[in-house]
Amino acid sequence: MKESVNNCEEELEALKKEYEEFVYIVSHDIKTPMRAIINITTWIEDDLGSNVDQDILDNFSLLKNRVGRLENMMNALLEISRVSRTNMELYEVNIPKLINDCVEMLDNKSNVEFHMTYHLKEEKCITLGKKLEKVVFSLLDNAIRFHDKEMKNVIIEVSENETDYLISISDDGPGIPEEVQDKIFAIFYTVNSKDVVDTTGAGLTVSNRILKMVGGTLEYVPAIDKGSVFKFNWPKVIRI
Amino acid sequence: MTNRLVNILLVEDDEVDVMNVKRAFAKNNIQNPLFVAGNGVEALEMLNNSIVPLPRIIILDINMPKMNGIEFLRLMREDDKFKNISVFVMTTSNEDSDKIDAYNLNVAGYILKPLSFEKFLSSVATLKNFWQLCEM
What we know:
The structure holds two protein chains of two kinds.
Chain A: H1 2-29, H2 31-48, H3 54-81, E1 90-94, H4 95-105, E2 112-118, E3 124-128, H5 129-145, E4 152-160, E5 164-171, H6 203-214, E6 218-222, E7 228-235
Parallel strand pairs in A: 2-4
Antiparallel strand pairs in A: 1-3, 4-5, 5-7, 6-7
Helix pairs in contact in A: 2-3, 4-5, 5-6
Chain B: E1 8-11, H1 15-27, E2 34-37, H2 40-48, E3 57-60, H3 69-77, E4 86-91, H4 96-104, E5 109-112, H5 117-135
Parallel strand pairs in B: 1-2, 1-3, 3-4, 4-5
Helix pairs in contact in B: 1-5, 2-3
């Protein structure tokens, strides 16, 4: 019995090593030709000089954009594979400060009003700060990125129960059509064509992975008057 | 003036990356003599047998066949003659372990190869500022 447990552990270790090597190869060896495509494209564009048809320039820009997407997808795959391997430090986090930091990091927030509400007995906790930050940032980024109005409202509510922090991030954007709500956590899925909103479609997948790892759940709830609400619970005690 | 330009050795196995560096040098008007080795073994041979003039600066890729950049750096740093060469690691590797290994072997900089040529140009422009200081 003990021997077979040992064998399983050895096998698991070997598989883990194989997996890590695979990820390493994907990240370096595939990026090299990808970079070469972009570089050579830029050189051709450069060598053609200034007297070039607009059609050709447009195609160059499409080509570079698509390779850029490919790189983003590759980075997203790597990020997903590393969810439980990197940024695994437990440290003291002040929750409102962490949320403010995420807001600070957002792009294009000039027409956004943030409304924060906290019902917390204690604002500080020891947790996987980088992971919590990643989830909050992804949800806030989505709320703004896919918003369809000039003025945007984003509501952040944090409360707690005995065991968990309960965090909800809602917006008054277009919401997610009912027929695709079960697809939004799938990797690279985007509700609109990637030509409409340039996004990789990995934020929710990564967030969902993180929550599964810490023992929380992420769910989408349609807002009553359109818009989206994403809710998740974040356990107060995390065992790693 | 020209004779004060420091020699640069590029250790890189990918042909496009070599062209990339050459092109970025031309764009940034960098006229330093540039020598190229395709991997760590070749670079060590070039240094040990004085096939190239002693470089003041090495630009080093990490993932290479035969001998990778970290192994090369380790062997090179063992030799007193090559202790003072400034080494810039230029790689796609964003692995912490590679960065730690590199810094433990006393590198002057760690540059991630960016996807776009424009970004690469600005990295090389930064390098130029550094080695102009070496030339003073």
